[in-house]
């Protein structure tokens, strides 16, 4: 692949493969239809215009398809825009995979799987262990392809698993520093807390909210599923309710979407670990883009703060 | 029964049957144990002291038992207090029922049952109708004995059913005034919205919050149960999710305990009807206690307002 | 009239009568003046440009005048825009009434008048009845032509009366379900609560806020007028103050513009009915525009929620 | 008069005249009725008990009457309490005036009257001047006897006038520093802004809220009265509305009871001056009671802050 | 100087000297670079485009330099825009000073200096006097050239000193009306409260926030400096801490940036005076731009209110 | 020492040594003076009364002195109360140390010192290392004796150091999980963030807020000291400002007392670590007091939540 679409400059030519993230039809002032497309590759995104399109074009150049594009980079209202001169669908012959155009978790899937397997293997409470294994099996594929969110943090392929693994590592340290914490409860809460997202979001690649996601939300979806899994596995006892409570309360307070606040120690810690890992992910990725002595862009979910990158070492 | 314990005056004698609402042991300054009891009958409550108790007394005079009491009414820190001189457990021979000491819904149970049966019979959507019938059957007894809350509104035997029936009547009027409303959705939402309270609260007579009630809450409990009922009945389709959404959102906003706000018309109306019926119940009961030209006590859940009872007609 | 200006498509021609809602002068990059106009008819609105205008045009094409227009529909920044080729003022010969270009209440004025007359006739309290008759007479014309608001809900000709009549119907049902409510107080509160809008807003057709509306507001204006009416009619007694209180408190709390919260039962109910009818109006009109299975646009005054239209029946 | 009831110590005897601020009947544990009285004189207040009272006592020892009392000072729950041994109503022969038992404004009434007369005399706008004169005449007596509030600030006889005069002085300085301010508007706003309190409060000596005060409030009452005064005096024009706006908005924002925020410069300044004078009055009176190097009690309406009195000079 | 760049009309020619406030490079759709400039003079600002620039132009036409410009006024997206035809840097021969292009305090610097000198001379507390003299000397130049803020109020050359002097005058009046106030504390608080801005802001002419300003803020910077000054001058005692407290608390509450609220009388008054002077400055400048009978633009820091300019006199 | 004063039961006798935490004089209804004392030992606290005291008693039995007490345990208003029969000051012969009556950090001081020494030794940035060493030396004694707060968390002897050491351990784990974090910045922020408490609080044993603590607060005090230390040590550069920023921002947001929010990655992490360690300390200590299956008392600074201790293992 080339240098990446996010790195081309105004005035340059571009030729290469890109993924269509979205495509919307408009009608120009001359009455001719055109497409407003957002292309992406692993480096980022660019806006584009495809002028005077045919009915065919409209049906072919749709979201999640990969295309080969030639064009030049213009400036439009202060932003780079790709003016498409030639475009065609990628073919099998091109040997191109849509996944290659998505940002990916920085850790290989296998490594993440292994880490989680180990954690689950070490669990001492058999009820919790069985429930976790049930879900790891059920969502085996989704867990390692879905993002953890549509934007803000871990919003890349495998982001959900990456978020879970980082939190497990953090959780492990905390159970060592604060030995009163029950590791099984904490780890199982971490693994399950966001899995509901695989039903809340429509797809791993260009996710939008499903109807179920909008009307019920990932928290309620997952609390439900834990109950059904327990029924199916014939498990009864406090563990089931405690797991449901941890999922239910992990946003920390009612205003943030948890109808019950954490009321066991491990639930409070789950909430705090979630916060830390999400914040670190956002800060790190924003700071990676700036030089020492500069401020990042404002980060909306971090109370719209900009962060300074020190010069000192 | 007599005039009612809430209506005796300081200086008077009292003799009659009372229900023990709560009983707590203390040790007096002379080192002797005593019980601080709250007695109740249908008219209300009174504080009492039972001095120099035996081990036996402690075990016998416990919450939810009915006793025959003789004593006089004193004043203690500005409140009437019953000074017990004689006390014994009621016996079968007394022909006394604990329920007779609870405030009751002002409508007979049969009338409420009949009204609900009629509403359910008229439902056109078979999926909704089957789910509602499932729950009416499952919680047949609890629905007509539990209060709708531990305090504030409809906090009396059968209060839950009374609240539901009043809301159904209101809902019926609204579907006539606003014919776009789907009656089946609205009625089923009304019937199910608070049933989770029969698991959130410990008992109909002197309810406290159960562990499940504290960690999950009646909303989550019921959303879960609807899913399980649908599974059991083999029902699929939008209706199940819409019913869950209505239960989930009926508190109106996140701060009030609904992780998702109402997103269908009937859910919004359910929330509003719930509000009106709860507020009317609180205002009416407070205003019943004052004379024209007076203000009620401040009502905490109504933003701590006092209400004026007009003199004009 | 034609299909309605809100229903034309980009690329089509338009010819017909339209009302000028607003017109603002600009100067083009070639130095020539032009007008940016918003036209409307009963179906909705469209933006338009009238290029290279004369002094005369500027004086003639002003808000609230009706014109005959020919032009074609273009797209500008994603929105349809009418490019005017010919335009002239409507003449008497055209037989056109400005009112025909406004959205109207869905119930005929006569029916609304009749309903209100009946309600007032049935009042038992003569003082209240006289005050209400005084205002019905005084604002006879405005009540049935003004909108209830400049936007959000009932923002159409006769919207004020439509809002009042819907609320009266709701109020009637509530007095039946909760017989402690005083119907005279409730109905009179409903009728008067928003009449101050006829002085707060500048005109029924393209209303803006008057100076009095901005500095005092419709609530204060109307509380004042009730006092003056009572003085004029020689009425004294609690009723006057209670009516003033209901108007004053109908927004429910200080943050929403009511310096005193409702402190009588009927004032609280007035506030709740107002809420319900406004919300139903907003939801119904938004849901009318979408198909089953879709969400409406976000509705700002309903906490920016979008509403889902179920597919099930 | 003696040293003042606020200055006696536990263990001392007291003999002298006191005003009854409030008196409430109770029944003792021996079944005998008694009165819980709050006595006051200019130095402050004391709680008292009058045991084993007769029907007569109950009718005679009522709020706002002056009595001659003998008794000793005890301590009850950490506070001084006057244990009454002898008590009788003051008679004409005692030459006692109830006003002598109230705290008073630190400036003589005549001086305040004179200052206000001068300010009004200098007004240039005849409409404003006539309206102000109308109210000064109408409430001549109340203005100089009522407090400005029931507690917190200027809560003494003549406190209302004292507050107005302080604010007028402050206003005068501000019109000199910021010459764009219109003195007539500002001064008239200052004089009228709180006069509604004479109808909101029941009496100058032991004020409680009237029904009108609770349901409408001093702001609405006064906005109404300005309209009626203008009608009576045949005055029309912007001045009337501006005066109403200043009264309406003087609490600054909706949450604080002003349905409209200040929208003219003089209204904003009126709000700020009101704030300063109320705060200075509260701080000064609290700091007067402590020594250098100490903190005052927490002052609730000043965000519950305690203020430090510096040692340095 | 000419009529001022803020007063030219679309279609007119402009020739004269202007200050470059900001200049940003862009690339046109023809691939050629251009500058987007904001010019300013004492009357206000105008946007401008300088097309097809050279490398030289880019380096020469930078912020804070003065240029001689010829061009015509166009309209672009509803705003006037200066289309530059000729431009050159001002030379020594032109006799132009950048300061002449900034708005200035309405009082001459000498007069402000004199007023402050007098106030300081009259101080009775030698410790306070020495600290104030230390800072007046240290920031002699900055105090009379910096604005008091980057926008909103006193955002002009010398605005900081102007704000201080107005507040001192107000403070003087208050110490006369409320003689309990300690003038030395109040005046010294006024003089120091905002001086930290000379380190928080980058320059008097086109100020932006410095790194220190962003990470520490003017309040913390100044509290630090007072401590260091006291150390340097060998001053100990309560005065130092009280001065620090006044600076620290002058924003009034935590949400507004003061980690401690005012806890001495003079600190509270400092906060209130600051509020009044800032608000008067904003209101006066907005009202100066409109005619009687009109409303000002909405003023964001005044809760986004628009103010009405009365017609009456 | 005995079983501990917190563990005696009503009706028992007590004899042993106790520390006087506070002592306040009152006058009984018989006119005799008495002392209300709070005693404490390492197990907790108890209220007590010492009747009919002499002048001597008053002067001798003062806070922070240790006494030998004999008495019996009564119940007063639902709480245990020690009725003192004999009391005398502890003498040298008793071999008693006031520190023995305080709760202590669960880790020995030497271990904490060693851990911190190691962390500081490993720092790579010499400026930061020198500043930290300066403060460790300056507050060597206070750091290991002061509590971290007067109540809520780590409110015991050495609590400040214990809090710092726990946070350092947490910080160490985080720098490993998130290698972008600068360890020197993070560790130095942790060590300094609360040291200002040694000046904010009056003493390690029965701390109250100092005047400086009230008017400036520990954050401002410490930001000042860092500046002075840097001056003294001749250190300049970004490090000083970054350390000040970390201290300043460690409460996270303005409402919580930080005038600037965290704007570097390490400051955000410092805030989060502080939160976690404080919360863990509060939860652990509350849960230690209850049995599995029970809820703790409500913990006010944890949003008044009660926490459940699971039964499962």
From TrEMBL, chains A, B, C, D, E, F:
A Pfam family cross-referenced in the UniProt record is tRNA_anti-codon
Supply the SMART domains for this chain: HDc (SM00471)
The reply to whether Chaperone figures as a keyword in the UniProt entry is: no
PROSITE patterns assigned to the protein according to its UniProt record, in alphabetical order: HD
Transmembrane segment boundaries? none
Query: Is Hydrolase set as a keyword in this record?
Result: yes
Keyword vocabulary terms for this entry: Hydrolase
Q: Which domain of life is it from?
A: Bacteria
Under the heading InterPro entries, the entry gives: HD/PDEase_dom, HD_domain, NA-bd_OB-fold, NA-bd_OB_tRNA, YhaM_exoribonuc/phosphodiest
Domain HD per the UniProt entry, residue ranges:
163-279
User: Under what name is this protein listed?
Assistant: 3'-5' exoribonuclease YhaM
Species of provenance: Piscibacillus salipiscarius
UniProt gene name:
yhaM
């Amino acid at each position: 692949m080339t240098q990446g679409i996010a790195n081309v400059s105004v005035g340059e030519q571009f030729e290469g493969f890109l993924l269509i993230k979205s495509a919307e039809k408009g009608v120009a002032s001359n009455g001719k239809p055109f497409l407003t497309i957002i292309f992406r590759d692993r480096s980022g995104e660019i806006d584009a215009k495809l002028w005077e399109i045919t009915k065919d074009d409209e049906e072919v150049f749709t979201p999640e398809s990969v295309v080969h594009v030639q064009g030049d980079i213009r400036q439009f209202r202060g932003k780079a825009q790709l003016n498409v001169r030639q475009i065609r669908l990628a073919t099998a012959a091109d040997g191109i995979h849509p996944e290659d155009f998505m940002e990916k978790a920085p850790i290989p899937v296998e490594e993440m799987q292994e880490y989680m397997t180990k954690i689950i293997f070490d669990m001492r409470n058999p009820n919790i262990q069985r429930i976790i294994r049930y879900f790891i099996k059920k969502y085996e594929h989704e867990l390692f392809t879905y993002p953890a969110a549509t934007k803000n943090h871990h919003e890349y392929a495998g982001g959900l698993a990456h978020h879970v693994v980082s939190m497990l590592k953090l959780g492990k340290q905390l159970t060592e520093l604060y030995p009163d914490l029950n590791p099984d409860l904490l780890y199982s809460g971490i693994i399950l807390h966001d899995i509901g997202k695989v039903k809340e979001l429509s797809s791993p690649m260009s996710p939008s909210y499903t109807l179920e996601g909008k009307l019920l939300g990932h928290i309620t979806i997952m609390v439900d599923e834990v109950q059904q899994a327990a029924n199916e596995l014939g498990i009864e006892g406090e563990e089931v309710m405690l797991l449901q409570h941890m999922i239910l309360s992990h946003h920390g307070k009612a205003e943030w979407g948890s109808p019950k606040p954490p009321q066991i120690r491990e639930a409070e810690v789950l909430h705090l670990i979630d916060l830390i890992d999400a914040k670190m992910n956002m800060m790190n990725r924003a700071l990676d883009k700036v030089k020492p002595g500069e401020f990042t862009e404002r980060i909306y979910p971090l109370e719209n703060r900009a962060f300074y990158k020190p010069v000192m070492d």
